[in-house]
């Protein structure tokens, strides 16, 4: 538990990333790293590669304006600013890239009870329980903020729902958040470079990590309407393909149990 809830080490993070474009700022507490970084961009006070990470968030943001709070130092909570070198209509792939990089990082640092998977579009699952979530927001035609929250050292009693889990619960008992953050940013850079180069293989790689593709799902649209469908793939824009043809770009997806 001491390693899991050790304070973030700014010097170690800087040393690990000093030859990259990432610039990491660590704060003890804030409302939301995502909200703060978006505001900095709009005020002209941020650029590509800025990362804001906090030991505690009092008003963390998730998809569909959901909120969450984790005990101090029990989660890794950060947001980063990137300037994608691809057309805006392809940016739907960015949260998928962020998720791929997250699973790759977890696999390198943790020995888990089972493999982590991707639930379209923004969740990381272990044993069908959410261990991490992502939020991608277009701030301008040149800027995107990606926010990530990972349950690292939370106990079962600290989790907000029985449908959530943490890395420690799933067997990763020595995960250092400073090392995780540094490796994640390096890994995301590699995925971003491949995506900007137009590597088509990313689609197949995503599909292999996905626990959504190939199963029955329930989709709740922004207007609250719910429908059932079969997830069959991901297209080049990052949209979910359902029933072999229809594209879904936004919505809340739930996995349905097999009969």
TrEMBL record:
One Pfam family in the UniProt entry: BPL_LplA_LipB
Matching NCBIfam families: birA_ligase
GO CC annotations, alphabetized: cytoplasm
Protein name: Unannotated protein
PROSITE patterns: BPL_LPL_CATALYTIC (PS51733)
Keywords: Ligase
SUPFAM superfamilies xrefs: Class II aaRS and biotin synthetases
CDD domains in UniProt: BPL
Gene3D superfamilies the record matches: 2.30.30.100, Bira Bifunctional Protein, Domain 2 (3.30.930.10)
Source species of the chain: freshwater metagenome
Domain BPL/LPL catalytic: 13-196
GO MF annotation list: biotin--[biotin carboxyl-carrier protein] ligase activity
């Amino acid at each position: 538990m001491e390693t899991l809830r050790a304070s973030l080490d700014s010097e170690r993070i800087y040393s690990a990333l000093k030859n990259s474009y990432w610039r990491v700022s660590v704060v003890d507490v804030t409302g939301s790293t995502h909200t703060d970084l978006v505001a900095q961009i709009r005020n002209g006070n941020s650029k590509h590669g800025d990362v804001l990470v906090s030991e505690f968030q009092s008003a963390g943001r998730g998809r569909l304006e959901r909120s969450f709070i984790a005990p101090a130092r029990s989660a890794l909570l950060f947001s980063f600013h990137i300037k994608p070198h691809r057309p805006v209509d392809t940016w739907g792939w960015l949260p998928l890239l962020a998720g791929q990089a997250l699973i790759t990082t977890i696999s390198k640092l943790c020995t888990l009870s089972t493999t982590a998977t991707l639930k379209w579009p923004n969740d990381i699952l272990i044993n069908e329980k959410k261990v991490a979530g992502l939020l991608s927001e277009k701030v301008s035609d040149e800027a995107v903020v990606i926010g990530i929250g990972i349950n690292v050292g939370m106990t079962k009693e600290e989790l907000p729902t029985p449908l959530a889990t943490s890395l420690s619960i799933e067997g990763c008992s020595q995960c250092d958040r400073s090392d995780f953050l540094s490796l994640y940013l390096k890994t995301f850079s590699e995925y971003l470079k491949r995506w900007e180069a137009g590597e088509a293989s990313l689609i197949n790689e995503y599909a292999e990590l996905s626990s959504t593709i190939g199963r029955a799902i329930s989709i709740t649209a922004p207007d609250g309407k719910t429908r059932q469908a079969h997830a069959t793939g991901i297209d080049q824009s990052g949209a979910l393909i359902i029933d072999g043809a229809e594209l879904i770009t936004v919505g809340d997806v739930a996995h349905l149990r097999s009969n």
